[in-house]
Amino acid sequence: MKKFFAIALAILLTPAAALAQFKEGVHYEVLPTAATKTPEVKEFFSFYCGHCFSFETGQLPKLKSKLGQNVKFEQSHVDFIRGNMGVEATKALLVARLTNVEKDFKKKFFQDIHIQRKPFNSVNDIKALFAEVGVDAKTFDGAYNSFMVDQGLRQMQLAQKQARLTGVPSFVVNGKYKVLNSGAKSWDEIHEIIQYLTTKK
């Protein structure tokens, strides 16, 4: 009897992600890329994607709290939405990182697109947004035309190609496992799949 209660207690204390039986081809896809040396979650997103906006504001804080500090979380912008402006948005994210305004810029850009419904039709429109978060035109131009932004753009374009993306938001875990959103019943289950995959090599 004591053994039974000990087993029952262990089950109750075991995280749901550890109990779940997630299957390759149903819940995740194995990519032909090398696994990272340490646990990592990469979210592919677009500022122009409404689901990405919802995830950023509602789900991202929850996911980060579940992952813990030992799992690196990174965001990579895709450029296949809104044509050339998709490329400009990718470069804008990289400029925001270089100028240390990423958090404010992302919040403002997402809200301007999805709440204020402001049109962004050129790099000048994006430059004006940077001015609103404290980055002057000269600083913006210097970062925008830098080698770091050009290199970052190429890296993000390569990453989205290697991930074999069909939509966003999409998640690649440990550089090798792509979450299949269609195989999950809820955001909570997607969180569990991601947690599970961080333990795989």
Explain what the structure shows:
- The structure is a single chain.
- The protein is of the alpha+beta class and 201 residues long.
- It has one domain: 3-Layer(aba) Sandwich (Glutaredoxin), CATH 3.40.30.
- Helices cover 53% and strands 11% of the residues.
- It is built from nine helices and five strands.
- A five-stranded mixed beta sheet has the order 1-5-4-2-3, sandwiched between helices.
- Strand 2, helix 3 and strand 3 form a beta-alpha-beta unit.
- It is globular.
- The relative contact order is 0.20.
Q: What topology emerges from the helices and strands here?
A:
Elements: H1 2-13, H2 16-19, E1 28-30, E2 40-45, H3 50-67, E3 72-77, H4 84-98, H5 102-114, H6 123-132, H7 137-144, H8 147-162, E4 170-173, E5 177-179, H9 187-197
Parallel strand pairs: 2-3
Antiparallel strand pairs: 1-5, 2-4, 4-5
Helix pairs in contact: 4-5, 4-8
Briefly say what this structure is.
The protein is α+β, with helices and mostly antiparallel strands and 201 residues long. It has helices spanning 2-13, 16-19, 50-67, 84-98, 102-114, 123-132, 137-144, 147-162, 187-197, and strands at 28-30, 40-45, 72-77, 170-173, 177-179. Mean pLDDT is 92; it is low at 1-14.
Features:
Glutaredoxin, disordered N terminus, 9 helices, 201 residues, alpha+beta, five-stranded mixed β-sheet, single chain
Shape: globular
The count of helical stretches stands at 9
What Rg, in angstroms, do the CA atoms define?
A: 19 Å
Order of helices and strands: HHEEHEHHHHHEEH
Which whole number gives the mean pLDDT? 92
Q: Which CATH C-level class is it?
A: Alpha Beta
CATH topology annotation? Glutaredoxin
